[in-house]
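input
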Amino acid sequence: MVSPQLPRLEGDILQRWGWHLPDELPPAGEKKGAVDIGGFARYSNEQQGLSFIYPEKWNIQEEEEAIHLLHPEGFARVTMLRIWEDSDLQAALESVEEHLAQEYHDFAVTSRTKVMVNGIDAWRVDGQSTSTEGINVIHNFLLLYESGLARALALCALLEDQYVTLSPIVEQISGSITLLED
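output
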């Protein structure tokens, strides 16, 4: 939930990342369309070589090669995986974009930006798609890299009608990613 007392500096940062605050925020204490996420916890997985914060009420599903964070009501999903093999950055970017185009109906990239995540270079790719049921989905992924080689991937998909509420939470998750020692 975005605080009604959001400082202007934070508002500028949100706009720089392409987020748009609602024109009117509900009065303090009112939960108009808000999703109660509870507190945050730190998750670390030595096998995956990843650490990040996540809302405690979200569900974590671990697979051998990936970690999935699922919003309790299915409004958002974040999938993270560590890339252990040397993988060319450009080839990895193209592969992820092709995978998303195959998985999601009419997926289209809307922006590509170089960013830093905890001192690690990353490509942030934003996109959108429409499900076969006509539901608009916002996508973004971070591809963290070192020395031109892909090192980790964080994929996010969230329902467009929940974007204003959930994008700051997803950004907190993505911005907290730390690579653990190889």
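quick obs: The radius of gyration is 16 Å.
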